[in-house]
Amino acid sequence: MLPRQTGGNRVTTGRQVPYCLFTDPELARIGLSETEAEAQGIGYRLFKVPMESNLRARTLSETRGFVKALVEADSDRILGFTAFGVGAGEILAAVQIAMIAGLPYTALRDAVLTHPTLVEGLIPLFSSAASAHNVVETRRAQISAA
Questions:
Q1: Which are the catalytic amino acids?
Q2: Which residues pair with 77 in a beta bridge?
Q3: Is the CB of residue 100 less than 8 Å from the CB of residue 46?
Q4: What is the pLDDT of residues 29-72, one digit of tens each?
Q5: Domains of the chain: which residue ranges?
Q6: Contact 78, 69 (CB under 8 A)
Q7: 3-class SS at 17?
Q8: Is 27:41 a contact under the CB 8 Å cutoff?
Q9: In which element (H, E) is residue 124 found?
Q10: How far apart are CA 121 and CA 142, in angstroms?
């Protein structure tokens, strides 16, 4: 038997490990959450849209849920992604590959994706207005006020 068939000496340390709960609707997550980014003092922009903005979700009559992404405040690097809705695990896979490759969120926003698919919903997500969460500045202001 080959080492790669038994797992060999591979570890998950330092790798993006996805989480997916196959409920109805599905929940999928990878990378940092808002809470984790704030705890680490990482400023971020939050992109979030309801699943009803996804054209394929509409054609399936499965518009419950949302998708959201955290993007580093000072760059276009994707820090984390969460999807709660139909096909969340499938949508997550596209974002995970972009994160592994070090692609900016704009690569997904500007891509020409197959229509209508659930992954195409990443375009309205990353085209939406992001809300800024500059954790570092907020903490500095709290310390200064004390």
A1: 115
A2: 104
A3: no
A4: 999 999 999 999 999 999 999 999 999 999 999 999 999 999 99
A5: 17-145
A6: yes
A7: coil
A8: no
A9: helix 122-127
A10: 37
Q: With 0-12 CB in 10 A as exposed, 13-18 as middle and 19+ as buried, what is 145?
A: exposed
The strand pair at 19-21 and 66-72 is best described as: unpaired
Q: Concatenated DSSP letters for 52-103?
A: GG-HHHHHTT---SEEEEEEETTS-BEEEEEEEETTHHHHHHHHHHHHHHT-
Query: Do 18 and 31 contact (CB within 8 A), yes or no?
Result: no
Q: Classify residue 130 by burial, with Cβ atoms within 10 Å: 0-12, 13-18, 19+.
A: middle
Written as six digits, the tokens of 35 are 């809470």
pLDDT at residue 143 is higher than 60: no
Single out the residue of 66, 60, 54, 59 nearest to residue 26, CA to CA.
66
Which residue shows structure tokens 């202001």? 141
Tokens of 107: 């690569």
At the top level of CATH, which class does the domain 17-145 belong to?
Answer: alpha beta
Handedness of CA 100, 106, 109, 114 (dihedral sign): negative
